[in-house]
Design brief:
Layout (H helix, E strand, L loop, with lengths): L9 H7 L6 H14 L3 H8 L8 H6 L9 E5 L5 H10 L4 E6 L2 H10 L6 E4 L13 E7 L9 H10 E12 L8 H15 L16 H11 L4 E13 L1 H9 L10 H16 L7 E13 L3
Parallel strand pairs: 1-2, 1-4, 2-3, 4-5
Antiparallel strand pairs: 5-7, 6-7
Length: 299
């Protein structure tokens, strides 16, 4: 059985030694995390919802317009949650395709989508050579753009395969200061990570510009300079008992997986203590900031 924790990769070792990891090092690190923890992002992401009751998968699916979209590509589809949602919503009205670089995630997606004819491909977002030019109506990307490095080739690939007036839509990290308690929770996690990996956090996973409104707009404009670009911030939340929140939240942050079991246990205790100090009617709440990026090509 694979150990979900204590991920020891070239990427982590490079950071520990004060060196600059390469994009290939990052790819291998992400592969190792997902091989050992396939499907881990969906648990908390599905439960965190906005004031209208929508989670981040549903916010992305809402971008689809059944009147003008028939061909949909899910970029970094992971375990197939978003594809499954789109299929349940729209059925045979849509031709759905998923792409992910991780075989372990794609295995889960194939199991989840075995009752459908959805096509799944193992490939990088920077190289969609199996997709014809101007053939896709809409590209959806759930919480993966943040991790893609380099990111400009991702936009270049998207622009090539999108039809005129096609849409690229992505959920990315929002401003942590907008979500109550998010920075405190992040600090708890990184306090423990830095106990074992003092340089962790010096270099962020992926391109840090994706994590700000100004940065993501600048990156998108580099490729889609003739397009309409909108970025909509939102706060999602999940109410649960403190012990459940501690486990769920820890399981969403990549940093948690580089910890030893003993350090991970201590981190969970600190997270639970934080949530216990913020109870309301017996429950605590985790607030998650997001941005919804929508690019309409050539408008």
């Amino acid at each position: 059985m694979k150990n979900p924790l204590n991920i020891d990769s070239v990427w982590t070792r490079q950071i520990e030694n004060g060196q600059q990891p390469s994009g290939d090092d990052l790819k291998k690190h992400l592969k190792q995390v997902h091989d050992n923890n396939a499907g881990f992002t969906e648990a908390l992401a599905w439960k965190c919802r906005d004031d209208n009751g929508n989670n981040s998968y549903e916010l992305l699916a809402d971008v689809i317009d059944r009147k003008c979209h028939s061909n949909v590509l899910d970029l970094a589809c992971g375990s197939g949650v978003l594809l499954d949602l789109c299929h349940r919503r729209y059925g045979d009205e849509l031709e759905l395709t998923g792409v992910d670089m991780n075989d372990s995630e794609l295995k889960l997606a194939r199991e989840r989508l075995s009752h459908t004819d959805i096509k799944l491909n193992n490939s990088m977002a920077q190289n969609l050579n199996f997709v014809s030019d101007l053939s896709i109506d809409i590209i959806l990307c759930h919480w993966a753009l943040t991790l893609m490095d380099p990111v400009i080739p991702v936009f270049d690939s998207a622009k090539r395969v999108l039809r005129e007036s096609g849409i690229f839509a992505a959920i990315v990290d929002g401003d942590s200061d907008m979500a109550p308690g998010y920075s405190e929770i992040n600090n708890i996690i990184f306090k423990h990570v830095c106990q074992e990996h003092p340089n962790y956090g010096r270099i962020e996973l992926g391109d840090p510009r994706v994590r700000s409104v100004e940065g993501i707009h600048e990156l998108a404009t580099t490729t889609f300079n003739d397009s309409k670009i909108t970025i909509t911030p939102s706060i999602l939340n999940f109410n649960a008992p403190a012990n459940i929140l501690a486990q769920e939240v820890a399981g969403f942050f990549y940093a948690s997986f580089v910890l030893t079991e003993e350090r991970h246990r201590k981190m969970i205790i600190d997270l639970e203590s934080y949530f216990l100090s913020h109870l309301k009617d017996g429950l605590s709440c985790f607030y998650m900031p997001i941005n919804l990026l929508v690019i309409k090509k050539g408008t």
